[in-house]
Each structure stands twice: as structure tokens, then as C-alpha cells.
DNA sequence: TATGAATGAGAATTCATTCAT
DNA sequence: GATGAATGAATTCTCATTCAT
């Protein structure tokens, strides 16, 4: 990686950390610069405006979301679902910061049309993928015949998105909830 | 209501509106004052600091959350659950702003211990109530025997909390999801 | 004058002084605030932006230009011309700063269309007035028959505008030049 | 011309252009570098400071002023004057930028003693030359006997210097004014 | 010569808060 | 209760200049 690119990556990482700690509300470019250990003017050399820095963070986060949805279409739906839930929960437990930033981004999307478009695309892709899993599972009679794939996708996504804002959530409860999902869809 | 109390209520309402529009990130006391149509110094007369104003907003929102959970314990659990879901969805559709502010509050709770305590208390009460409903339903064999009441509560709460951040959500989809919940728990 | 208006007048005067000393190039709002003896934020309370302050200065200067052209149409053209020259020269000697700022404004007009329009209107009015004086003088046979009123106006205005940028100009030379004008137009 | 000298010339030309467009007020070394198509550090290699660059521009402009005053003393004064006026007007119409920069320099001279000295020398030489022309013309009885050579020189220089700041000036008017000068001095 | 990266010293502007009236 | 004016402490951003390569 070129030196400049490397530096920009560092800065974005620091900005993510700052947002996770203080929210967008408390994001200060000087804090980000201090976190990286560079002069504030140097930060502005790489990201001309605070807005550009935030865009960098958004791209970083959204980029990290890619690849979350496995594409192997022929696998067992129940297993795919179980693995997906486990994957997200594990990730949540491992890197809570990422979810905090994502949560801030969703809050911001309500006032930032561009961000809304970006995140909406992600949401749609996620819902599409989950729906396909539920349809496949229903077709194989693994899942309930009266399962509404679209509604089920909304429920699963909703639960996973809410992890951060269920203040009484624990790893145990989230695992139990994931198990409950698996039972609830089973034929 | 005394004149002063009346004015304070106006200011809090304006602050909620401002937060719903711009987030905490964009909350400016001068904007709130302008929204009410008073001088900024007058606002500070009623709320000495911005912090006090935010506290006022939190109290307003949390106060509005009370009474959401009906206490009649002897009623039919399936009906209670259905009504609860409908109640929240209706409320969401009617006053989205309230949910936007609440969402901002949850984001803030991660960095504000005092707010965390306040909201956690609400979450716990909500989860307790829902768990009781599920337990009652299971006892009456309305709900699945293998239903985990605590996990189911987490799922329901998660879905309802996520309404705002499911960018592709529509009234139709949310109603369908509520129906799916009712089917999923049924014995 | 209201307190606020008074303060704004003070600030504009200080800004004029600052521009006369340092040019637009060296104009710093903090210096203007210091000159008035107020906090820089107070200056911004009265003039939200530097641009607004400059506009205030322009209005002040242009306002001061009004009334320079006497309107008595029936007076003796040669006398009117002589008095006009004397008036401007006296004013130049008395308040050089005003001319320095005006000169800066003309330099700026080349890049600022709005300012160009404002100053052009002044120039046109001045030229119109002088032309009328020359025409009247020619009609009375005070001035040369082959005098081109428009060209003569351009020459007089040019000389008066150039006072500041003729670095070797002295009160004596400028008075002598004024006398030369009077001789040159005489029949 | 050595490669380095060539590059310095390019840079000075770009700086002149930048000053003509934006004034000293808006002169940015990075803009000049961009105009030349080089890195800002490369510009600083050739001109260590912004001040040095401005000095380069001043030298370029002042250098271009040399040779404006023809030295043939024995020629016909009326013709010399006419040609001088035409020469300057033609030059003004052909390269307005040069006059814009010169105008900026004169504005600056009021605050920059060194620049004042440089430009004053030019002014004095110009006035001396014109005075000599007027004296010669008077001696030959081409010009009016009561013509004050020094005052006439001040008027002519003043008019020529004011071309840029007479916002309603046109090539036609300036030519007519030159003709008026010739008539006004004639015996 | 040339450049990408870095920086110190400002620059305008914002904002919550205060105070005299 | 209400307000215009004032302010200290940031905050983002700019800019000439430097330095390692």
C-alpha cells in the first residue's frame, strides 16, 4: 500500500474509533488527528473536509459489510441461517465498535439522503438474501409452510440490528434468541 | 399549568422536533429558541444549560413510554401480544419523530451512563412484561411449548426497536412481520 | 442612534481605517475588533461574515460620495468647475484614507461584479454631471468651442482619480494641475 | 535562457496572471504553482518565499515599463505626445492584465516603502520626460504659452493611470480624451 | 530539480452562556 | 420573564513553508 493510502486508512480507523466513542455528535477532527498522532493540517491534507473524512468512514464501514452474505446457493437453508446468525453475533461480540458506528450511520441516514441511499442498498441486499434462504427452506420443507419469507427476513434483520440498542442484551440472551429463531421457523 | 411550566413544555417540544430533524449532532439551542419564537437568553432562563434542556427532552420521552405496557394480567396472552404489536406499529406510523428521538437517545446511552440507566430500566420493564405474556401464553398452551419466553421477548423488542433503522420498512411489511410473530409463537 | 446601530457604525469606521492601512489584502476581522475594542465574536454578532463587513464599508464609502455633485444648474460653469476641483482636492488632502479605501474598492471592482455595478453607477453620474458643466460652459462661450465635453469629463475624472497613484503628487502640483485644467478649457 | 531561468519566467508570468485575476488579496502560491503545472514545493525551490515571488513580479512589470519613453529629443513635440498617448492606449487595450497588476502595485505602494521607492522612480522619470516634451513644444510655439509643463504632465499621467478605474471607459472615449489633450495644449 | 507529505501559525466562524436593562 | 449585546472557548479550515526522498 502506498504511504498516502496507508495514512488515509489509519485516519479512517481513528475516525471510526472516535465515532464509536463519542458519536458523530462528539466527532472532532483534532481528536482524530491526535489519535493518529499527526498534525491537524496533515489530516486536512488527506481529507480536505470533515465531510470527506466521514465519507471515508462510511466507505470503510460499508465496504466491511460486503462479503457478509455467503453466496453458496445450494447449501442447506437451516444451516445457512444458523451460521449467518452465529456469524453476526460473533462479530458483534468481537467488534462492538463497528456496530456502534453503523448505528450512528443509520441514525444519520434519516437526515442524509446520500447516506440513506447507500445504506438502503445494503438493507435491500440483505433482505433479499434472507428471503431467498427462507424460500429455499420452505421449498425443502425444512421451514414452516405458513412462513412468510419476507416478514421473517424483516424480523431477523430487525433483531440483529437491534442488538446494540437492547441495553439488557447479553451474549447468552442473543444466542438464545438466535436459537429461538431457528425453532420458530422450523417445520 | 403555570405560565412558566407551559413555556418549558413548549421549549421541550421544540427541542424534540429539532433533535428529530437534525439529531443531537445538529442540536443548537438557538435553533430551539427560534422554533419557539423566543430569545436565546429567554431559553436559558428556563433551561440554564443545554444539558438541562436535553434532560428535559429525555424526561419527556421516557414519560411518554410509561403506560405503554397494559397491566391487566388476566387477559388472553395472544390478544395482548397482538394488541401490543399493533399499538407500537400504529404509534410508529403516527409519530415517527418520537422514535427518531428515542433512537438518538439509545445511541447516546452508549456514552452517557446516566441515560443508560434510565433507558435500561425501561428496557428491563418491557422485557419483563413481554416475558410474562409469553409465559402466560405457554401456560395456557396458546404458544409453543418449546418457546423460550425470554428469547422471544428479545426478538419482539428487537424487531420493534429496529423499525426506524430498517430503511426498506413499510407499513405493510411491518404488519406482515407482526403477523409472522403471532404465527411463529402459536402452538 | 440605537446602540446597535452606533456599534455597527463604529465597526465600519474601524474597518475603513484597517483597509486604508493594510488594504483588503491585510484586512483581518480580529484587527477590526481590536480597533473597536470589542470581542471578535461581538463583531460577528453585528456582521455575521467578513463579507458583510466589507459590504458595510462599501455602503459607507458610496454613501459618502453622494452629495459631492452640487445640483445648482444655473450657476456659472467655470466657477462650478473650479469649485468642484477645489472641493475634491481639499477633501483628498483632508482625508486621504477615504481615497485609499476607494482606490482599493476600484481595484476590487474588477473581480467583484456587484461592486462593479455600484461603482459604475457613481462613475456614470459623475461623468454626466461634468459633461453637463462643460456643455453649459461651451454654450455660454466660457469654454473653448472645440471642447469635447465627454472627453474633457474623462480627463478631469481621470486626473482626480489618479491623485493617489501619482506618487510624486503634492498639494502644490495638484493645485497647479487644477489651474491648468481651467486654463485649458477656457475659450 | 537556462532551464531554471525559463521556469522562473513561467512562474512569474503565472503569478502576474493570478494577481490580475484575483488581486494581491487573492494571490495564493499554490494557485500559481497549479497554473504553471508544478508542485508547490518546486515553486518554493525557485522562489523561496511568497515575498520573493512578488518581487519577481514587480521586477517583471517595472522592467516592462522601461523603454516606454522614447529618447529621441529632436523630434516634433506634438507628434511625440500624440504617439505617446496612442502607444499607451494601444497597450492598455492589448494587455489589460498588465495594467491591472500595475494598479495593484500602486495600491500596495502605499503600504510598502520599498515598492513605493521603485514606482516613484518610474513616476518621476515619466513626469520628467513629459515635462520636457511640453517645454519643447512651448519653445517651438506648438503649445500654448501659458501651458504649465509640470501641471500638464500631471494631468496626462493622471488620465493614463486612471484608465482602469474609470469603469465607464471605452476605447472610443479614451481616444477622444487623447484628442482633447492634443487640442487643449495646442497654441 | 521535483514531489508527496507534513506542519505551525493563523483565519473566519460557531456556540453555549452571561449580563445589563 | 424577556431581550439585545457581549464574550471565551472552541472548531473547521487555510496557507506559506519545510523536509525526506
TrEMBL record, chains A, B, C, D:
* Lineage of producing organism: Bacteria, Bacillati, Actinomycetota, Actinomycetes, Micromonosporales
The UniProt keyword set, sorted, is: DNA-binding, Repressor, Transcription, Transcription regulation
Name of the molecule in the record: TetR/AcrR family transcriptional regulator
The source organism is: Paractinoplanes ovalisporus
Keyword presence, Transcription: yes
PANTHER family membership:
HTH-TYPE TRANSCRIPTIONAL REGULATOR BETI, HTH-TYPE TRANSCRIPTIONAL REGULATOR RUTR
Annotated DNA-binding residue span(s) = 28-47
Q: Does the keyword Transcription regulation apply?
A: yes
**In the record, which residues are listed under signal peptide?**
none
The HTH tetR-type domain extends over 5-65
Amino acid at each position: 500500500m502506498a504511504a498516502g493510502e496507508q495514512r488515509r486508512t489509519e485516519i479512517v480507523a481513528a475516525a471510526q474509533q472516535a465515532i464509536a466513542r463519542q458519536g458523530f455528535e462528539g466527532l472532532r477532527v483534532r481528536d482524530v488527528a491526535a489519535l493518529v498522532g499527526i498534525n491537524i493540517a496533515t489530516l486536512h491534507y488527506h481529507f480536505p473536509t470533515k465531510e470527506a473524512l466521514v465519507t471515508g468512514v462510511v466507505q470503510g464501514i460499508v465496504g466491511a459489510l460486503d462479503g457478509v452474505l455467503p453466496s453458496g446457493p445450494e447449501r442447506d437453508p437451516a444451516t445457512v441461517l444458523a451460521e449467518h446468525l452465529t456469524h453476526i453475533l460473533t462479530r458483534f461480540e468481537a467488534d462492538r465498535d463497528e456496530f456502534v458506528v453503523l448505528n450512528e450511520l443509520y441514525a444519520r441516514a434519516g437526515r442524509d439522503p446520500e447516506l440513506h441511499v447507500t445504506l438502503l442498498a445494503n438493507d435491500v441486499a440483505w433482505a433479499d438474501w434472507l428471503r431467498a434462504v427462507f424460500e429455499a427452506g420452505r421449498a425443502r420443507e425444512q421451514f414452516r409452510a405458513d412462513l412468510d419469507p419476507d416478514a421473517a427476513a424483516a424480523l431477523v434483520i430487525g433483531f440483529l440490528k437491534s442488538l446494540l440498542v437492547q441495553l439488557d442484551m447479553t451474549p447468552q440472551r442473543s444466542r438464545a434468541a438466535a436459537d429461538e429463531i431457528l425453532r420458530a421457523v422450523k417445520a
